[in-house]
Amino acid sequence: MSALSPTVRDRLSATFARCAAANRAALVTFVTGGDPTPAGTADVLDALVAGGTDVIELGMPFTDPMADGPAIQLANLRAFDAGTTTAHILKIASDFRARHPQVPLILMGYANPMLRRGADAFAASARDAGVDGVICVDLPPEEDAELGPALRHAGLHLIRLATPTTDAARLPAVLNGASGFLYYVSVAGITGLQQAAQSSIENAVAKLKAATDVPIAVGFGVRTPEQAAAIGRVADGVVVGSAIVELVGQHGAHAAGPVKDYVASLSAALLTARKEMAA
Amino acid sequence: MTLINSLRSQPDDRGHFGEFGGRYVAETLMPLILDLEAHYRAAKADPAFKAQFDDLMKHYVGRPSPLYYAERLTEALRAEAPAGKGAKIYLKREELNHTGAHKINNCIGQILLAMRMGKKKIIAETGAGQHGVATATVAARFGLPCTIFMGARDIERQKPNVFRMRLLGAEVHAVESGSKTLKDAMNEALRHWVANVHDTFYIIGTAAGPHPYPELVRDFQSVIGTETRAQMLEYEGRLPDLLIAPVGGGSNAIGMFHPFLDDPEVAMIGVEAAGEGIETGKHAASLAGGASGVLHGNRTYLLQDDDGQITEAHSISAGLDYPGIGPEHSWLHEIGRVQYVPITDAEALASFQRLSALEGIIPALESAHATAAAEKIAPTMDADKLLVINLSGRGDKDIFTVAEALETEI
C-alpha cells in the first residue's frame, strides 16, 4: 500500500500508472549528481529525458559508497574533484524541476549526507527542490525512524529495496512503509557488475507482486536493450545506472549525445517488449 | 539476567546504545545480520560454546594475560610528582597474547561463530595489520580460506604484517579506493561480503559495525576486564581506581571497561589519537573532533565535514587511523561514564621510548597513547591509588615507523 494518497503532485505514481496503461515498463535511469561537474549534470539529465527516461535517480555522492561498484565509485570521485556539495545536488534538482515539471526525480545515496543537517531539514530542502522520493541505500526498515517519518511528513516517497536475500518472513517489514515503487536489487552484490539470471528475476518479481500493489522496478547489472526488454516484460520498471555512468565517465562534458542515444535504445526496447511477447 | 539501571545491559534489542549503534546496512545484508544475531544469542546461552572459547583462550592464546606491576614506571613518575602523589601503575599485558595483541580474543570468538553458522570462508579488514594477522591465524588454525582487505597505503607501511598474513595462508587484497586506508578496506570488505553472503563470514576487527557486532566483539574482549578485575582483587584486595586504554574503534578499551561499568569507584579514560594536534585537523579523535553520523553500519561519532562526507583520519599509529569509534564509546562519552582524552603522535612516540627503556616492554604505538596519558595523569593521583593501563599490543610491528619518525636508520 502506498503511504501517500495519489495526488496531482505525485508524479511518481502517475508515471508508473501511465506506463502501465501503455503496456510497458517504466525506464528508470541513474546518474551521479555533480558528474562530470555540478554545472554539467544538467545536460546529462536532459539527455536522459530526451532519450525517453520515465524516472530519474540522481545520485548524491558519498566518500564511502560501500554498496557501489567501480563505475559509480569513480563517478563519486569525479563529482568530488569538481567540488560537488549537497547544495549543488539540491540546485541540480530544482533547476531540473523548472525545466521538466512532469518527470519524477529521486535522490539516491547514503544515510550520512542525508542526515547530516537533520532529517527534517533534508526532507524540506528536497521537497522544495521538487524531488519526489528518496532511496537511502544503508537505511533498512529497522532504522526507518531516522528518515522515513520526515520524508513522509514532507510528502516524499521513501523507496524501499528488496533483494535476493529478502525472504518471505522479512518481506512484510520491507513493504511496511514502502511507497512510490519497490526497487528490486536483482543480484546480491554491488552496482554495475554481474547480472541476475532472467528466471530468478521472474520468480522474484512474481513473489513481490503477490505481496504488494506498489510498482516493482528491477535493477543492478542491466546493460543491454535486450536485458532491459526481458525484465520489462515482467517488471513495472527497469533501472539502468552504471552503464550510463560509464558513458559520462568516458565522454565527460560531451556525454549528452551518447547518453541520449543509449537511453533511447533502452526505451525503444521497453516500448515493444511486451508487444513482442504477445505476438 | 539484565540488571535494571545497569550500564552493562546495553545495547537494546535493536542494537542501540542510546542514540548510537543500530543496523545501517544495505538490505542484502540485513537477513544475514539478523541471522548472525540469532546464532550469537544461541551461542551465548550454550555452555559448550563458552567452554570451547575458554579452552582456546587458555591453550592457544595463552590467557590469562598477566597484570604486571610496572614498578620502574611508577617510581619514575613519582619522582616527578609532588610528595605523596603518583599512582601505582599496573599493565594489563595483552601484548603477550598469541599474535601480540588483544585482537586474537575477538577473532577466536568470531571464527567459532562462523563455524556454528556453517560459513566456509572468512574475510576481514585490517589497518595496521594486527587484526588481519589475528584473523589469518584463526583461519589457519581452523582450516578456513581467508581474504584480508587492506588499504594499499597501509600495505606499504606495514610490510612485515603483510608477509605474516601471507605466511599464514591468507590472501591479502590491496584496496586502491578512497584514502587507501582502514575505512576503505572496510568498504571493500563490505562490498565483497554483500556479494558472498551465502558462504562468507566477515570477522569485523573492532567493536563497531552493524548490530550485533559491537556487542559480540565487546563480549569476546571483555575477558580483558574480567581477568583484570579478578587479578586486582587478588593482588590488592580491591578494585582499581582508574583504567586507561587506547581507543581507535575501541575494542580493547570496551573489553577492559565493560566489566567495571557498574562500579562507580572505578574511573575510566579512553585515549584518542590526536595525530599532529586536534587544532591542526590532522587527527583521528572522533569524539574530540567529530560529530554523530552514520558509517559502516552504525551511528556513532565520525570525522566528517558539514555535508556529511567522511574526512581522513591521521595518526602515527595505523591501528588508530580510523575516522570513527565504536558506538558504545560514543554513548559512554555522552553519558559521561568514561572520559576521553587526546594524545598526539609526539606524546605517544615519547612514551613508546620511555616504556621500552624503563620496563623492557616495547608497546604498540596504539598502546603508547595510553601510557602517554597515564604519564600525565598518574602524577596527579595520590600514591595509594591504583591505575591500570591496557597494554593492548606489542610494538615490534612499529619499529620501522618509530625509527623513521625519530629520523634513525635501522
UniProtKB/TrEMBL annotation, chain A:
The keyword Amino-acid biosynthesis applies. Gene3D superfamilies: Aldolase class I. It is an enzyme of class 4 (lyase). Its EC number is 4.2.1.20. It comes from the Bacteria. The active site is at E57, D68. Pathway: Amino-acid biosynthesis; L-tryptophan biosynthesis; L-tryptophan from chorismate: step 5/5. Tetramer of two alpha and two beta chains. Belongs to the TrpA family. This is Tryptophan synthase alpha chain. It comes from Sphingobium boeckii. The gene is trpA.
Automatic annotation (TrEMBL), chain B:
PANTHER family: TRYPTOPHAN SYNTHASE, TRYPTOPHAN SYNTHASE-RELATED. It comes from the Bacteria. Keywords: Amino-acid biosynthesis, Aromatic amino acid biosynthesis, Lyase, Pyridoxal phosphate, Tryptophan biosynthesis. GO terms for molecular function: tryptophan synthase activity. This is Tryptophan synthase beta chain. It is an enzyme of class 4 (lyase). Belongs to the TrpB family. Its cofactor is pyridoxal 5'-phosphate. Tetramer of two alpha and two beta chains. The modification N6-(pyridoxal phosphate)lysine is found at K103. Residues 64-393 form the Tryptophan synthase beta chain-like PALP domain. One of its GO terms (cellular component) is cytoplasm. HAMAP family: Trp_synth_beta (MF_00133). The keyword DNA-binding does not apply. The gene is trpB. Pfam families: PALP. Its EC number is 4.2.1.20. It catalyses: (1S,2R)-1-C-(indol-3-yl)glycerol 3-phosphate + L-serine = D-glyceraldehyde 3-phosphate + L-tryptophan + H2O. The beta subunit is responsible for the synthesis of L-tryptophan from indole and L-serine. It comes from Sphingobium boeckii. Pathway: Amino-acid biosynthesis; L-tryptophan biosynthesis; L-tryptophan from chorismate: step 5/5.
